[in-house]
Amino acid sequence: MLPEFKEHIESHFPEILSHPTMVAISGGMDSVVLTHLLIQLDIKPSLAHCNFQLRGEESDADAEFVSELAEKWNLQLYSKTFETKQIKAENRGSTQMIARDLRYHWFNELIDQGKSTYLLTAHHLDDNIETFLIHLSRGTGIQGLLGIPERNHPILRPLLPFSREEILRYAKNNQLAWREDSSNASDDYLRNRIRHHISPQLKELHPSFDPNFNRTIRQLTQEKQLAQIEIDRARASCFTSDGDGYKIEIEKLQALTPLAAYLYHFFEPFGFSQFGAIEKMLNGLSGKEIRSHSHRLIKDRTHLLLHPLETIDKTCYEIEAGTTHLQHPIGLQFEKVDQMKEKQAGVLYIDADCLQYPLTLRKKKEGDVFYPQGMRGKKKLSKYFKDEKMDTLTKENQWLLCSQDQIVWVVGKRGDERFKITPTTQNIIKVTLKT
Amino acid sequence: MLPEFKEHIESHFPEILSHPTMVAISGGMDSVVLTHLLIQLDIKPSLAHCNFQLRGEESDADAEFVSELAEKWNLQLYSKTFETKQIKAENRGSTQMIARDLRYHWFNELIDQGKSTYLLTAHHLDDNIETFLIHLSRGTGIQGLLGIPERNHPILRPLLPFSREEILRYAKNNQLAWREDSSNASDDYLRNRIRHHISPQLKELHPSFDPNFNRTIRQLTQEKQLAQIEIDRARASCFTSDGDGYKIEIEKLQALTPLAAYLYHFFEPFGFSQFGAIEKMLNGLSGKEIRSHSHRLIKDRTHLLLHPLETIDKTCYEIEAGTTHLQHPIGLQFEKVDQMKEKQAGVLYIDADCLQYPLTLRKKKEGDVFYPQGMRGKKKLSKYFKDEKMDTLTKENQWLLCSQDQIVWVVGKRGDERFKITPTTQNIIKVTLKT
């Protein structure tokens, strides 16, 4: 396999021929073979070994084996011992996940410290087949079928196209010694089940199963990339930034085919999974809302509004008598003035004697009514919002300045008749919205 | 499974609730269950049964069983016996492929005759898993992983989301009888190997393997559709129709990423498989050519030229003295005239006495030289072509009118000095290119 490996390195990973390279070595067959192959190509990698102390003496013997190998092959060795069991006790996740996190975290540290430019792992074709089948069984979609990435800077996996069988043959032909990991037989139930019972039978279905599999995942990766280009293009045509969220034009959305695929790709990244409901929403009533754990999607007349959940501040803020400046949640300035000047956007003049403290600053609530200035009588706030053609999110973000619970000002929009300046007003307060 | 089936029909195949429907019935469990399910939904399908006579008495007994079932359930039956073995002897392909072709051909006939609007087959989830794994082992790419199509008008496959296990349970619960196909155990080696040894183990990897698998192939289908949209868009931007082929702008092609994916999708449909070579060609010398079984792809300076192989006519046509009209391969008219008129595109005046018959009409060949009118001396034809900035295909399609083997006219482009009209010319022939 050396000639094929050489060719693969030259065509896919030429960078490791001229940059410091480190191998993540367990002492098992795969990483020992990878190291040996590199040495044959006159690449002298440094080695990084993790001792997770999960198999007692065996773990220590692995570390010892790697240390001897480094000495024998004259390679720089970085070795680290982890208190994995203790760390697991203090954290969430399986032992496997924790060990993986520790490993990659340390590898990145070594890279950051300039110990190497690249870090190579010895993942191979059979690891990839196992990963493929595990993801197939879990239904994780195309992403799960793409296999282990060949490069994920600074991590490179140059053994990925080679099978365990090829690696074993190479190891034997070169009389390499390695450590058998006893956990192979029990540690990872699913993987071992596939390795010993399913993969061998699958491979018997076709004499070229291995290269065919490699070709398939390469092609799937490309299809995914092409699909992503189309998704990005379509998203750019439908989505408009809107504060910390997006407005999405429904008409453009509905022109997309297959719509279900676009909806999945557009909204899955925001935590949504109810794509059928989203599709129905497009023709549904305005105001309809669907939530994910992090976002809300609201049907407005011509658009969907997509916003982070936390944007709607539902707090009721109290404003004590004598307050001159309010900074949060919005900027308001209160001044005593002698007379009212010309009307001005963002400014309201109030008859101070009509106010009851504390004032409150809050969002709309069910049943709100007010007496819009310039109109006779009262109006439901919801009716006012509707007449103003405010979209659902704007409604929810609209602050109301209240005297106790009576609306004094739909802030920045309309004052209330009950608090306006009249010929009998003696004390005037000018409220200015600072934006 | 009846409620799930009902819901599936209502949401995915509402058309069969209101149109004549036929079931392709073998007499095996799957097609018997499908028929029974439809009857429960008050759909009375007609039945179509093929007797391929491949299993002697068993085949006849299957036909008899279906006939009795049709009578018992009061369904219209169409039944046809095929001389499959004889047809196989006369044709290429495996028995299985021939039987499939015969079956679908006959089904289409029945539909064309108006016997039904739709034809339903009983393919199910486990058929789909088997097909997926067979294609995975063959490396047929994403297309092979999409599974059996749910609809391929007029054929519909409403059992696809249901597993063999569910179908078996339904059959038992409803005390249905069916015919076991003895060939299941031997006929289709690969499929049975998967069915009995691989699928059961895969399903044990995850309790929701079946629905997860359904979701995966649905998602792969959508990814493929999205990728296809991008491919079509990119193709439209790079390809320009050019006669019976295409000109493809290299600069635009090179701007595409991942280029390998686009090259695959652009050129695979024309029979190409040498995508690495095509990629190299983009920066290669003009004139470089790659062929598929049906097409040639030629590097020109700024474009690739893609053309069917048969467009280049390499024949050398002879033109006898006295010919006045030539129609094939191009239209030429020969007239004796008294005098030469003003120069005109597509017209050449020749000194008749310089010609030696038969004239020939042919394409360029190695070593061609001529004496371009208006120039002193001779010139290599290849140099002339180059100076005229003719692309490779234009060169190859350029006809040359020759006197025996001497070039008289680069047809439509430039006459030869040796044959031109001089003060001493006595007989003039006017040659006109008819387009």
Structure description:
The structure is a homodimer of 435-residue chains. The first copy, chain A, folds into three domains: 2-205, HUPs (Rossmann fold, 3-Layer(aba) Sandwich); 222-311, Uridine Diphospho-n-acetylenolpyruvylglucosamine Reductase, domain 3, CATH 3.30.465; 317-434, Phenylalanyl-trna Synthetase, Chain B, domain 3 (Phenylalanyl-tRNA Synthetase, Chain B, domain 3, 3-Layer(bba) Sandwich). Chain A is 40% helix and 20% strand. Chain A has helices spanning 2-12, 29-40, 56-73, 84-90, 95-112, 125-138, 141-145, 164-173, 189-203, 209-238, 250-254, 259-267, 275-281, 381-387, 392-397; strands spanning 21-24, 46-51, 77-81, 118-120, 151-152, 155-156, 239-242, 245-249, 289-291, 295-299, 303-308, 317-319, 325-326, 331-337, 347-351, 359-362, 369-370, 379-380, 400-403, 406-410, 414-415, 428-434. A six-stranded mixed beta sheet of chain A has the order 3-2-1-4-6-5, with helices on both faces. In chain A, helix 2 packs across helix 8, helix 4 crosses helix 5 and helix 12 (259-267) packs across helix 13 (275-281). The radius of gyration of chain A is 33 Å and the shape is elongated. The mean pLDDT of chain A is 90.
